[in-house]
Amino acid sequence: MFQTATDISEIKTNPQLQLAFDFVQYTDRPIFLTGKAGTGKTTFLHQLRKTSPKRMIVVAPTGVAAINAGGVTIHSFFQMPFGPQVRMIVVAPTGVAAINAGGVTIHSFFQMPFGPQVPQNPDQPRPVQVPGDGNVAAGIKRFSREKINIMRSLDLLVIDEISMVRADVLDGIDEVLRRFRNRNKPFGGVQLLMIGDLQQLAPIMKDEEWDLLKKYYETCFFFSSHALKRSQWIGIELTQIFRQSDPQFIDLLNKVRENNIDEEILSQLNQRYIRGFSPDDKEGYITLTTHNYQAQEINDAKLGALKSKPRTFTAVVTGDFPEYQFPTDAELKLKTGAQVMFVKNDSSAGKRYYNGKIGMITAIGEHTVEVVCPGDAFPVEVEAEEWQNARYTLNEATQEIDEEVTGTFLQLPLKLAWAITIHKSQGLTFDKAIINARLSFAHGQVYVTLSRCRRLNGLVLSSPIVLQSVKSDATVLRFTDEVERNQPGPSELDHARKEFQQQLLTELFDFQPVLRMAYYLLKIAGDHSGKLIGNLQENLQNMLLPVKEELVAVSDKFSIQLNKLLRQSADAETNPQLQERLKKASAYFSEKLETIVEQPLANIDFDTDNREVRKVLSSAMERFSNETAIKKACIEECKNGFRLKEYLETRAKANIEPPSSGARKKGREVPVSVSAHPDFFKSLKDWRQKKANQLNVEIARIIRQRTLLEIAHEVPVTTASLRAIQGMGGKKMQQFGKEILEMGIAYRRAKKMDVPFGAEKAAAKASMDTKEISLDLFRGGKTIPEIAEERTMAPSTIEGHLAYFVRLGQLPLNGLLPDEKIETISAFFNKNGLCPASQARTNLGEQYSYSEIRFVLNYMEAKREGKNH
Q: Which of 137, 479, 801, 841 is in Cβ range 3.0-4.6 Å of 774 for a Cys bridge?
């Protein structure tokens, strides 16, 4: 039933297709590829996938490879490793359009809400959430690392069925791409190929959505996108029709497309009207309708002809969910043997079906049905799914679109499918079709419907076409007329090709970004120098002058030669003098980049107690290292000369899998070698981390890093030498002195360093048992809360320490709790005998704490044993 309009040989022999292909292959210009239905737009996309050197991705819509394009599933895309064989992104505005194009929907790939996208300032795009960024603020988009890598490595983004893409959606794509790529270029510097016919289906936009957006956009069509207007896009119109070969039918279609029809044209079309036409199912006719209710009437009749017993599934509707928005029937009548179509993506992890998938019912249960789809080994057990209806409002304070769920619809995600609507037929070709376009309601629908057919004699009208059914948009007609009158030719191609090559090579040998990154990192380090240890600032400072003199200054001079040589030829690849200079320059800059930047970066050591400072610095270091590695990989590729295909592949791979040399993981604590005894310093850091984990406190609250570094430098083994180090006062000495001195003694002995006589005995007295410390502080006049605060412990822990000494008879009750409480609790135990504290508290009441009862109980037990002094 479905046919391919053209083949590879027709593309090669068609000047317009070849021009479009060359603009994609050899330039970075955004391209609007348009043309009448059947002119080979879809086949052009297929051929582009096979031959273009540019980085692209093909993924199928919401879980399954596309019928027409042979793409991969979204599930496969997210689960399988991203490799060089993946070549293009194809996105489309609707699920069905994505299926036919071999791609995914715009909203699913870019994770955009289905409401209107209020345009943002290009210099302040919306925030985007990436893994590892902590809590997610409301409205912030999440992106997996894999998807971020894909966007960073893209050369070309294909958007199919662009006629249905709204201007605000295109600007939303621009925001996302600029976030992860070059924020100073439209669409982040990614080339766009927009494929579609504006005389076909238009964007769908509710009145309340347009009320929000009309202050920002001239029209809802994609060509009103602010990002697109900032780019140097071109339009190419294909005029040779492959789908139809009958000149009369082609002429009829053109007249309908251009809204240039009269009674004679209508008469010719209406000759295909056959009253009461009812072919046998075996003839292969499919019915196309303008409205869902028309398709349902046909489907209901087919359903009634089945002999199996019907079963009705009733939807559960809550809140505000108007009937005209129901995604399927509220009263869904099904039978075994019925042909059905899924109307929602599978929300389960299995992704067993997608919106638009066709199958046949094989069994019906109490709440589920089984559906077998062509090519599937097993039936799918289908359960009810939920849809949500949302209302969109503009938040004047944040300029964000707020979404409020106002209603839900719960039903089996199925529809009968002997007939489909015109929207569902977009991009498909039929040999035989029954068409009812009398009640066409949208711009371009009659043309879309008629142009689905290969031949006029394969088309049957179930109702005559009237003039009112054929609609077009004056704004669209003006735009398409402008595209037709301003199409580029070979000279524009040569100019754009030269510009693209010059841009690639100029950016490659521009080392100002390297210098800026070094200055940026140095500024961060300077702002937080008091919190840092290591050689970060020193190494960066030493890097600046060589970068300026041996990279930036030399590249500035080379750029003058480069531009001169580029002007001599339209194609850098065929310019032998340019190629020779590129080889020599690449060898020079590759060596300098390694010695001046990469090696110093790899040798940088820094550390800090402050987690936020470490995170910012590590992130900046990672970006600096990765950007340098990407540039180095591209320069290495040019050592053998500049070849566009190989260069783009190298650049894409470097963006996805940057070489690990010099790269640092985000947030990773970097080991430092600034200590005179780095291995002892590492042991101290490990000990400090373990202590912090045990006490559940920040590492800086154990011992600050500068103090730790001085301890590592001095390796003290006496109480006096340890106390002399700043930060090792009385409290720290009491808490950790013994352990640190013992570590120092052990290290000195292992390294055969001098250890003073009696050091071990002195270390043993350097700190007391943790309970003794609490007792000493209490006897010194501190309260229990004050001791807990000083020791970063819970008050109950301190109370336990003191209760221990009460039980030993070494600590009286005076000062631990009020006298009246001592009397009451003592009286209880004297009357009832000594019992567990929990039992006593049950009788005494909650005004007495467990610790207070335990103090008295321990005292009385010690007294009974004669331990009290």
A: 801
In 3D space, the residue among 465, 833, 424, 497 whose CA is nearest the CA of residue 644 turns out to be: 497
User: What Å distances lie between residue 653 and 49, 81, 85, CA to CA?
Assistant: 18, 13, 11
- Neighbour tally for 634: CB within 10 Å: 21
What whole-number distance in Å separates Cα of residue 91 and Cα of residue 558?
40
Show the tokens assigned to 581.
């200079």
What average pLDDT does range 338-356 have in this prediction?
A: 78
Sequence-ordered list of residues with C-beta below 8 angstroms from that of 601, at least 6 positions apart, any chain: 539, 621, 624, 625, 628, 662
Give the list of residues 6+ apart from residue 396 with CB closer than 8 angstroms, or none: none
Q: For residues 117 and 68, what is the distance between their CA atoms, to the nearest angstrom?
A: 30
Contact between residue 36 and residue 42 where contact means Cβ atoms under 8 Å apart: no
Which pLDDT belongs to residue 671? 52
- pTM of the complete model: 0.56
- Is the Cβ–Cβ distance between 277 and 460 less than 8 Å? yes
Q: What is the SS3 assignment for 837?
A: helix
CB 392 within 8 A of CB 276: no
pLDDT of residue 808: 87
How would DSSP label each residue in 23-69? HHHH----EEEEESTTSSHHHHHHHHHHH--S----B-GGGS--TTT
pLDDT at 71 over 50: no
Cα dihedral: 518, 523, 525, 531 (round 10): -170
Strand segments, DSSP code E, in 212-357 are 234-238, 286-289, 311-314, 316-319, 331-334, 339-342
Token pair, residue 348, equals 């389960």
Q: What's the mean pLDDT in 590-614?
A: 86
Q: 707, 728 in Cβ contact below 8 A? A: yes
Each residue of 376-421: pLDDT tens digit?
A: 888 999 999 988 776 534 344 543 334 567 788 999 999 887 888 8
8-state DSSP, 800: H
User: Strand 141-142 relative to strand 128-129: parallel, antiparallel, unpaired?
Assistant: parallel
Identify the band that residue 759 occupies on the pLDDT scale cut at 50, 70 and 90. low
Closest to 785 (Cα-Cα) out of 806, 807, 802 = 802
- Is residue 243 within 8 A of residue 189, CB to CB? The reply is no
DSSP-derived 3-state class of residue 211: helix
Question: What does the pLDDT look like over 797-806, one tens digit per residue?
Answer: 888 889 888 8
Instruction: Give every CB contact of residue 426 below 8 A, 6+ residues apart in sequence.
Output: 94, 96, 97, 100, 161, 164, 200, 201, 448
DSSP per-residue string spanning 466-513: -GGG----HHHHHHHHHHHHT---HHHHHHHHHHHHHHHHHHHT--HH
Residue 499 burial (10 A CB sphere; 0-12, 13-18, 19+) = middle
**What percentage of the chain reaches a pLDDT higher than 70?**
76
Collapsing DSSP to helix, strand or coil, 756 comes out as coil
DSSP state of 288: E
When mean pLDDT is compared over 326-340, 347-361, 648-662, the highest value belongs to 326-340
